[in-house]
Amino acid sequence: MFIVDSVQDIQDMARGAVLLGTGGGGDPYVGELFVRAQIKNGRYPKVLSCDEIPDDAFVLSIAGIGAPSVIVEHLVSEKTLHRILARAEAFYGRRVDALISAEIGGANSMFPLALGAISGIPVLDADGVGRAVPHIEMTTFSIYGCKATPGIVMDDSGNVVTIEAVDDRMAEDLCRVVTGAMGAMSFGALYPMTGKQAKSFAVQRTITQTLEIGRAIRTAREESRDIFESLIDYLNSWDNRTARILFDGKITDVTHDTRDGWHFGRVTMTGLQDSTDECVVEIQNEFLVCRLNGKTITIVPDLISILDRESGEPLTGEMLTYGQRVKVLGYSADPMLRRPESLEVLGPRMFGLDEEFQPIETLLATA
Amino acid sequence: MSGSGYRLGIDVGGTNTDAVLMRGREVLATAKSFTTADVRSGVVNAVRMILDKAPEHRASIEAVMIGTTQFVNAFVQRKGLAPVAIFRVSLPKADGVPPLAGWPDDLVEVTGSHIYMVGGGALYTGKDYAPLDEDALRAAAEDARSKGLKAVAISANFAPIRPDIEEKAAAVVQSVMPDARITISSKVGGLGLIDRENAAVINATLAELSEKVIGSLQTAIADLEINAPIYISQNDGTLITTETASAFPILTCSAGPTNSIRGAAFLTGLDEAVVADIGGTTTDIGFLLRGFPRETTAANYIGGVRTNFRMPDVLSIGIGGGSLVRRGEGGWTVGPDSVGFRLAEEGLIFGGETLTASDIAVRAGQAEIGDPAKVAHLPDETVEAALDNLHRQIEDAIDQIKTSNHALPLVLVGGGSILVSRALKGTSEVLRPAHAEVANAVGAAIALVSGRVDKLYDVGAMGREAALEQARKEATDAAIAAGALEGEVEIVEIVELPMTHMKSGSVQIRVRAVGPLAALA
C-alpha cells in the first residue's frame, strides 16, 4: 500500500503513463491537474496491491471514453465522478471496494486516482493491459473472462446509459456510439469484477511502474546522468521484460490520416550524422510496429515509445513533427499479453498488419 | 521579404535598447543604448543616436517596428501584474480542474484566486450543451467589481468554434464592470481549454501594464517627431499594430529571441545555423531552420504557466555582458547572476566596483568599451580562467540545442558577442555579421505580418479540400486584416489534427499565412 501525497509523484506518474501509452491513450495532463488539486487540498489517493484486498471484494473500472481533443476542452467534472460512482453502486447493488484502471497508458491512468482521491476508495496497483489499446475488448480483463458490461456510460449533463452487450467487441461499439451522442466524451463504469479476478486477470504493479518510470527520467535529468541509461536499467529490472533503444535519430516525415474515427499515421526517422539508416513507426492510435530499414524490430502488443532525445520526455503521436530529435524505445509487453489467447485479440493481425507477433527479444537477436 | 521604404527597427531588451534604420535590405544606421526603467527614455536615446547619424532620413521613415521583452519579463519577474477576475463558462463540465490549477503558488499570490465558474458552453459540434447562465455571470461580475478588480479573463468550452459564447459573456461582464479590460480566450489561443485560458489570464494580468508601456512608446516616437505608424513584433517574428499589442501583450512574449534569430538569418543569408544572442544578462541559443527559428513542439511554459503558444526553441544560459565574475571553490566562474542594465554604473570599465564579463573582455583586448585603464590591474590568470569558464558554458549549451554532432555555422549576435574570442566546439565557423550587435532590431524591421486560424472543421460534411480551402482563406483574411498586402500573402504552415477515437468528421486545422506589410509596398 502506498499513498500518493506529493505533486511530484503525480507528475512522475503522468510522465510514465505517457510512455506506457505508446503514442496513444490521450494526454494524462488533465487528470494530473485534477489529482494535483486534490493533493494540495489534502485528499490523497491510496494505492493497494491486489494481494491486499479480499477475494470477494467488489472492484470496478472508471474510465474516460472519448477523443483526446475533446477531453482537453471539457476536462473533468468532480461532480460527474461522484455521480457515476453513486450510480454505479446503485446499479450493481453494492459498494465499490476498490477501483482499477482499464488501461494504464495515457489519460486513463489518472481518472481512477482522481476518483480515489475524492471518494477515499483505494485504487489497485494494476490495470487491464499495462499499456494503451484502442478497444474495450483488448484488455486482459476481457481476454481472460471478465466482461466489460453490464456497465454504465454517463456524461456531465447527467445522461446515463446502461449497456449490456453480448460480448466486449459489441460493448466497444455501443460505448462509442453513445459517447458520440454525448459530444465525444463520457465516463464509463465498466469491468465489474471480484478481488480474485483482479488478482488473476490484471497486469500487476503498473501504477508503481508509471511512478518509477517518471522518476527514473526526472532524477537522471536533475542529476545530469544519462536519462536513457537510467530508464532502460529500470525497465529491464522487471522480471521477464526487455527494453532497448531501437533507434536514435530525427523525424524526417510524419503523416496523419483519419479513417473510421481512428488515427492512422506513419513516422519516418533517419539516423544522425551520415547514417543512412531509416526507421519507420506505423501509428494506429498507438505505435503499432517499428521497422528498421524495412525489417520489423518491435511489433504490437510489445510497446514502442518515442521520446525527446534531450529531455527524455515521452511523446504522444500528436506531438510528433518534422525535425524533432528523438529516440525510439522498445519494451516487451507483460507476459499475459503475449499468450496465444491475447494475441488473438491484440496481435498484429487485429490491426490489419499482415505479420505474426514475434517478441522484441527474438526480433532484435536476428536483426 | 521587406518593403522598399525607410523603416526604423527597435528592440527593447532587458539590458539594451537597440535601433536600426533600414531601407530595403540595406542597414543605414545603428545605435545601442541602455534600457531604462521607464522604457521610453531608452528608446528615445537610441533613436536620437540614429537621427544624429542620419538626420536627412527623419521625414522618410514610413514605419517603426518595435520588439520588446518587457511583458514577458514583467510576468516572469511577477512585476506590474494586475489581479485578475477569471470567469469560466463551462458548468456542468470542467469543475474538477478550475482555472489556475497548474499555476505556481507565488504567481497566484500576485494574480489572486478570483475564480467564477458559471453554466454554459458548447460541444465539439458547436451545439450548446448548456445555455450561458447570465444571472450567475452577472452576480459573479458584481462580486468581482466589489473587490475592485479591473482585469478580466473569460474562457468557455470550445470557444475556438463558438467565440460568440465568450463574446456574449464579455458583454454581460462589461455591463456590470464598465472599466474592466477583458481578454476572451478565443482571441489568444487554440483548442485546449487549460492552455488557452492560461494565455487569457496571463494577457489580462499584463493588460494594464501593456497599455502604459505601448502608450509611452507612442509618445516617445511622437516626441522624436517621427510621423509613421508603429508596429510591434509578435512571437512568430511578424508584426501587429499598437492597438493589438496593447490589448494582447501576450502575443509579444517571445518576440525577443525570434527577432534575433530572424535578424541573424537576414544578416548572414544563412538558412540553417545555430544562433547565439549574447545580451547583458543571458545568452539565448536558438536554431535557425529554413530561415525561421525552430519552434518547440511540446507545451510551452511562460513563467511556470503552461500555454499552447508555439515558441522558438531557445536555451538560455546566464552569460552576458553584465554577468558577475567571481572566484568560487572550483575556480573563476561567470554568471549566472548579472548586474543587468546597471552595467553602465557598476562595471569596472564604467567606473563601478563590480567585476563583470565585459570587464574581462576589455582586459583581454576583445573590445574597446569604457575605460580600459580601469581593468589594467586584472591578472592574466584571472582573465584566462574566466574566459575558459565562459566558453565552456557556451559550448555545452550549443551542444544541447544542436542534438547532432554535425558541425554547423554559429552566428553570434547581440551586444555581448564581444565576450566570445575562441573557436567553439561543434561549430564549423563562427560568423559575426556586420550589425550583429543590433540583429534583434534588424529582425524587428523585417516587415511581415501574419494571420492564423486554429479550429475544428467538419471535413465529413465539407470534404477535406473544401475545409482546407476555407481554413487557408480565413488565415489569409486574418493576415490582410492585420495589414498584409493583398495578393502577396503566402500560406507558410498547415497542420491537420484529426479527431481520433470517434467516428466524426471533425478535423482540427491550423493554418498560418504571412505577407509583406501593405503600408510599405
UniProtKB/TrEMBL annotation, chain A:
Domain S-Me-THD N-terminal span(s) in chain numbering: 8-164
Residue stretches making up the S-Me-THD-like C-terminal domain: 167-360
Stated name of the protein: DUF917 domain-containing protein
Organism of origin: Sphingosinicella soli
TrEMBL record, chain B:
Gene Ontology molecular function: hydrolase activity
Stretches assigned to coiled coil: 380-407
Residue ranges annotated for the Hydantoinase A/oxoprolinase domain, each copy included: 196-365
Domain Hydantoinase/oxoprolinase N-terminal residues, every copy: 7-176
UniProt protein name: N-methylhydantoinase A/oxoprolinase/acetone carboxylase beta subunit
Natural source organism: Sphingosinicella soli
Coiled coil recorded as keyword: yes
Pfam family, one: Hydant_A_N
This protein's UniProt keywords: Coiled coil
